[in-house]
Specification:
Blueprint (H helix, E strand, L loop, with lengths): L1 E2 L5 E5 L7 H8 L2 E5 L9 H8 L5 E4 L7 H9 L4 E4 L9 H6 L3 E3 L6 H16 L2 H9 L20 E5 L3 H14 L2 E5 L5 H16 L7 E3 L3 H7 L2 E4 L13 H6 L5 E4 L8 H10 L4 E4 L18 E3 L8 H20 L10
Parallel strand pairs: 2-3, 2-4, 4-5, 5-6, 7-8, 7-10, 8-9, 10-11, 11-12, 12-13
Antiparallel strand pairs: 1-3
Bound molecules: (2R)-2,3-dihydroxypropanoic acid.
(2R)-2,3-dihydroxypropanoic acid binds next to loops.
Keywords: Glycolate pathway, NAD, Oxidoreductase, Peroxisome, Photorespiration
Protein name: glycerate dehydrogenase
Catalytic activity: (R)-glycerate + NAD(+) = 3-hydroxypyruvate + NADH + H(+)
């Protein structure tokens, strides 16, 4: 699909993206926009090389693509100056290679914070209250009437929410769980989450003044402390060498038998084989997963686990957010082509 065929700058989007604002932005600024309409979901390096061709000023790409040495050198040879991932995460992008070939890299932080945190909160609730299992039971016509033991789950109020990686998304999630369900907080991050701490303190004071039990917070000295103490744990680190299999067999064993683990970051942060084994051996342990180690696949056995809620990497999938991500991605590419500052820059 080609927009503004006579535009001066050739910009490629490897996928169609929601909304029209991003398209208008590019075409109003003299770009010839080519949107790839290839049916297959994940484009290979070869597919993208063919799209780049001999002349290309910038590319908007997706987190499913492998943006490394091969693509950045080709983009640079084609005169390309900019690449933007339509994602906040950029573990699929070799930023060093991009720098080497003089291609600026952008990502799309900010607009997906609340949407992603809302999905992490949804998965926490779905796991705690066994919503998916109960839904399947109902649809299968198995409901014969109210029973004292039917789908008994966990009450969140007064329990402890654990956040590993208290950046933008982790902090927004923590705030939702604290304010929504009056949970106490324990978090682990290399940096102090000062604003989050202030929020919990102020909210705790408000609860106290209202005659309610105040909520508390603690910055853990180690990740293990969070795993041992929290009832619901949500993972929000970036994926790199240091966070690969951060949650492994040993660390799963440290968690409470009835804990809930939520992952909306990247699949390889959890050793999924170890997780399946843990779920099998601990039926009261539950997970809510948006991401998987080998997307689009799940490790064998995971799909059979009743104590797992699984969704297909949709944490940022609200209309407002996806349109915002598309707009930021277009601005990143346009900005570099036109010499404006790049909005999201993983180097900064
Ligand atoms: C991201 O942005 O990194 C998410 O995984 C998709 O929105």
């Amino acid at each position: 699909e080609v927009w503004n065929p006579n535009g001066k700058y050739r910009v490629i989007s490897t996928k169609s993206m929601p909304g029209t604002r991003w398209i208008n932005l590019l075409i109003e600024q003299d770009c010839r926009l080519e949107i790839c309409t290839e049916k297959k979901t994940i484009l290979s390096v070869e597919d993208i090389l063919a799209l780049i061709g001999d002349r290309c000023d910038g590319v908007i790409g997706q987190l499913t693509e492998d943006w490394g040495e091969t693509l950045f050198s080709a983009l640079s040879r084609a005169g390309g100056k900019a690449f933007s991932n339509m994602a906040v995460g950029y573990n699929n992008v070799d930023v060093e290679a991009a720098n080497k070939y003089g291609v600026a890299v952008g990502n799309t932080p900010g607009v997906l914070t609340e949407t992603t945190a809302e999905l992490a909160a949804s998965l926490s609730l779905a796991a705690a209250r066994r919503i998916v299992e109960a839904d399947e039971f109902m649809r299968a016509g198995k409901y014969e009437g109210w029973l004292p033991h039917l789908f008994v789950g966990n009450l969140l109020k007064g329990q402890t929410v654990g956040v590993i990686g208290a950046g933008r998304i982790g902090s927004a999630y923590a705030r939702m769980m604290i304010e929504g369900f009056k949970m106490n907080l324990i978090y682990y991050d290399l940096y102090q989450a000062t604003r989050l701490e202030k929020f919990v303190t102020a909210y705790g004071q408000f609860l106290k003044a209202s005659g309610e039990q105040p909520v508390t917070w603690k910055r853990a000295a180690s990740m293990e402390e969070v795993l041992r103490e929290a009832d619901v744990i949500s993972l929000h680190p970036i994926l790199d060498k240091t966070t690969y299999h951060l949650v492994n067999k040993e660390r799963l064993a440290m968690m409470k038998k009835e804990a809930i683990l939520v992952n909306c970051s990247r699949g390889p942060v959890i050793d999924e084989v170890a997780l399946v084994e843990h779920l099998r051996e601990n039926p009261m342990f539950r997970v809510g997963l948006d991401v998987f180690e080998d997307e689009p696949y799940m490790k064998p056995g995971l799909a059979d686990m009743k104590n797992a809620v699984v969704v297909p990497h949709i944490a940022s999938a609200s209309k407002w957010t996806r349109e915002g991500m598309a707009t930021l991605a277009a601005l990143n590419v346009l900005g570099k082509i036109k010499g404006y500052p790049v909005w999201g820059n993983p180097n900064s």
